[in-house]
Every structure is written in C-alpha cells, then in structure tokens.
Amino acid sequence: MLTIHFLGTGTSQGVPVIGSSHPVCLSTNPKDKRLRVSVLIQWGDTNLVIDCGPDFRQQMLRVNCAHLDGILFTHEHADHTAGLDDIRPYFFRQGDIPIYATQHVLDNLSNRFDYIFVNENKYPGAPNVQQHQIDAHTPFVLDGMTVIPVEVYHNTLPVLGFRILNFCYLTDVKTISTGELKKLHDLDVLVLSALRIEPHSNHLNLEEALSLIRLINPKRAYLTHISHLMGFHDEVSKNLPKNVFLAYDTLTVTSN
Asked: For residues 16 and 66, what is the distance between their CA atoms, to the nearest angstrom?
C-alpha cells in the first residue's frame, strides 16, 4: 500500500500568479492555491519525493516530513528542480541524499548546482547527493519497491514518469508512445498533468488528458500541474467523469 501526498499541483508559475488579477488567482478557496508540482510517496518507513521544485522547503514543512529516502526527477525544468539546495537539513541529519535521474538531467543539475556535485574543495555547508543514473527502459529497486520509468514527451523534451505497484505519476505530458502505454495497464491510481482548457503546444489540456485517461482506464485519475486558466477547482470538478478528480495541494490518497 502506498500513501501519496500532493505537495504541489500548480504549473511553473504557481497559483496565484504574481501580480495577476485573474479571478482564479483572487480566489479565497484553498483548493485554488497551488504550489509547484510534486508528490511525496510513502510506504513503510520510506519517504520518496518526485521532483524538488522551488516550493520544496515549504512543502516539506507542511507535510512534516522528517527524513527523506530519495528524490526522483522527471526532467530538468526549474519548477521541478530548483529546490535542490533545500535538501540540506536532511543531509545534515542523514548524510548523502539519493537522487535518481537520467544522465541528461544529472548533467544539468551538476552545472546549475555545481557546489553540490563538486568533489574537491567543497564548501562545508553544501549537501552531498548519491547519484543514481536511470533510463526509460530499465526498472530499478528503491527500498524494496520496483520503480518502472515511463517515458513521455513535453513537446520534444523527454520526461520520465514513474510507476510503483499500481500507482503511476506522469507530469508535463504532451505525448506518449504506444509502447510506453503498455506499462500502464491495471492502474489503481494515475496522476496525470492537465494544464488548462485551451490547447497548449507543450502540455495536455483537459480534453486531451481525459481522452488519455479513457485509453489507460485506471480505477481513479487525479489531474495535476494545473494553471489558473483551468478555472475554479469546484466548478471544473463538477464536470469531470466520476473516476477523475482535480488534485489539490495537501490532498492525500492511497494506492495498492
């Protein structure tokens, strides 16, 4: 059994957007306020985070996560990686923090956070990471659980989703191949990105996400990576299929 905490469900700017007077950005409903997208997955004593965006510190405090067993990175964009420095409290207590990413993403992180990845003359306050190179075609084991990478495309950028047991997390999706879809049979819970109502060149919109959900046919699906242009949480939720839900920050679900 997995427990999934939605740490953030917003797009790259978050909701509300700075300086915006859009009605959703002015909403007082907590479900319309979205930090950058991330989830915490728990089983036994294991705490695993997918992506580590600029709201990571706030999210870890809010969920009261005292130790961290690893971070899976979907891709290199800042809204998924910019919080890496905030692993320092975990490092100071636990030692090196395991991170899992493709070589391309590891190279990108090592350039942007060189003071973390450098081996010589390292600044004493910088954290250390254990680098684990992964790829779309090779499952791996993390704390007793098999993790199956699933490759999707964010326009032309490859992004990894992850399946653990009957749970799968797919963010920043625009397209997915037939071969990768075969990894998504018999899902209990699917988390899938859906940016807004109108089409977008890099992301699934709501109609495209619902079409993909019908194809995959999970028992339950939760939409994430949502912008203010999706509309009000409560209004959009009324028109979704009975097994599809708009995720929101602090939502917790379970999956077999």
From this structure: 28
Average pLDDT over residues 141-162: 96
Residue 146: is its pLDDT beyond 90? Answer: yes
| Angle, alpha carbons 212-217-165 (nearest 5°) | 110
- What gap in Å lies between CA 205 and CA 189, rounded to an integer? 20
Torsion over CA: 81, 83, 89, 59 (sign)? negative
**Angstrom distance (rounded) from CA 171 to CA 209:** 11
Sequence-ordered list of residues with C-beta below 8 angstroms from that of 98, at least 6 positions apart, any chain = 69, 70, 71, 129, 130, 132, 142
Distance CA 241, CA 196 (A): 17
Q: What is the CA radius of gyration of the chain?
A: 18
Which amino acid is it at 205?
N
Write down the architecture of domain 2-255 according to CATH. Answer: 4-Layer Sandwich (3.60)
Phi and psi at 78, nearest 5°, equal -60, -35
Compute, in degrees rounded to 10, the torsion defined by CA atoms 162, 167, 173, 175.
Answer: 90
pLDDT, tens digit, 9 for 90 and up, residues 181-198:
999 999 999 999 999 999
Cross-strand pairs, 160: 151
Distance of alpha carbon 6 from alpha carbon 38, whole angstroms: 6
Contact 248, 157 (CB under 8 A): no
Q: Stretch 42-47: mean pLDDT, rounded? A: 97
